[in-house]
Amino acid sequence: MDDGATPPDPSALAADGTAVEIYRRLPSTSELEYIAAQLGPNSSVLDLGAGTGRIADPLVMLGHRVTAVDSSAAMLVHVQHARKVQASFEDLALAEKFDCVLLIGSIINYPGTQPRRSVLAAVARHLAPNGQAILNWAPPALIASRPAGFIQSLTFGAVTTTLTIHSNTGRITEGEFTLEADGRRWRQSITAEKLSADTVRDELHRAGLVLTTADPETTRWLHAKLA
User: Fold this and answer.
1) What average pLDDT does this structure show over 10-38?
2) 68 neighbors 76 (Cβ within 8 angstroms)
3) What is the distance between the alpha carbons of residues 226 and 224, in angstroms, rounded to a whole number?
4) Which GO molecular-function terms appear in the entry (predicted)?
5) For position 9, what pLDDT does the model report?
6) Could you confirm whether domain 20-139+196-226 is CATH 3.40.50.150?
7) In this predicted structure, what is the pLDDT of residue 63?
8) How many whole angstroms separate alpha carbon 69 and alpha carbon 94?
9) Structure confidence at residue 168 as a pLDDT band (50, 70, 90)
C-alpha cells in the first residue's frame, strides 16, 4: 500500500509515455457506478490495465476482492487497496479465475490486431466458468460523431478534461486528451481504431468468448462470457 509519505510526481510517465497524473486525477464516478451494479457481493475481480487503481480501489472499498494488473510500476505505485500485479497482458498467467474481468478505457479500440488478441486472450484465461467480462469500447457511431476539429470539455469538480480530435480517417482517429487541475495541465495523445460489432464479436470468439450484449453498437459497455 502507498502510505502517502511520498507525494506523487506530477511529471511521471508510464513506459509507453502515458501521463500517470491524468489517471490518478481522472474521476471514475459513472464507470464505477455501472460496474458495481453488475457485480454480486464479494466478487473476485480482475482489472486489466488498471492504471492507478481509480476503479480497482473503490471496488475494494465496496467489498470486492480486486486484483489490479498493469505493465507500469509508475501507475501501480498509486494503487492503495487492491492487490497489485505488474505484468503485460501477454505474460499474465495467474493461478486463479475471476468472477469478473474488467477491460476499461476502450483498450480494445487500440490500433492493431495482435495487441487486441493478446488482451482478449488474457481475459479468457482468467475468467471463471460462470464469470462475466465487462469491456468498455468506443462504438462506430461514437467515433464517426467526432470528426477532425471536434472538441469536448467536461468539468468534474476541480478537474476539467478536454478531448480534441486532430484527424479521423474513418478507420483511425487521432487526437489529444488533456486534464487541468490545480493550475496545471497534463496532455496525452490518443489513437483509436474504429471496429464494427461483428469484428469485436469475431475477435471474442477467437479468444474463446461469446458476446452477450444484445445491441452492442448502441452502448459503450460490452459483456461477454466463456464459450
Assistant:
1) 79
2) yes
3) 7
4) methyltransferase activity
5) 54
6) yes
7) 98
8) 11
9) very high
Task: Name the pTM for this structure.
Answer: 0.91
Q: CB of 147 within 8 A of CB of 177?
A: no
Q: Tell me what the pLDDT averaged over the chain comes to.
A: 92
Q: CA-to-CA distance for 115 and 170, rounded, in angstroms? A: 20
Report, at the CATH architecture level, how domain 140-193 is classified.
Single Sheet (2.20)
pLDDT tens track for 61-83: 999 999 999 999 999 999 999 99
**Domain regions of the chain by residue span:** 20-139+196-226, 140-193
Is the pLDDT at 142 greater than 70? The verdict is: yes
Identical fold at 20-139+196-226 and 140-193?
A: no
Kindly report the length of the chain: 227
Tell the burial category of 56 from Cβ atoms under 10 Å away from its Cβ (0-12, 13-18, 19+): buried
CA–CA separation, 90 and 74 (whole Å): 19
Q: Are strands 221-226 and 209-211 parallel, antiparallel or unpaired?
A: antiparallel
Half-sphere exposure (Cβ direction) of 161: Cα atoms closer than 13 Å: 14
The three cell numbers of residue 205 are: 470468439
Instruction: Give the residue among 173, 192, 223 at the shortest CA–CA distance from 116.
Output: 192
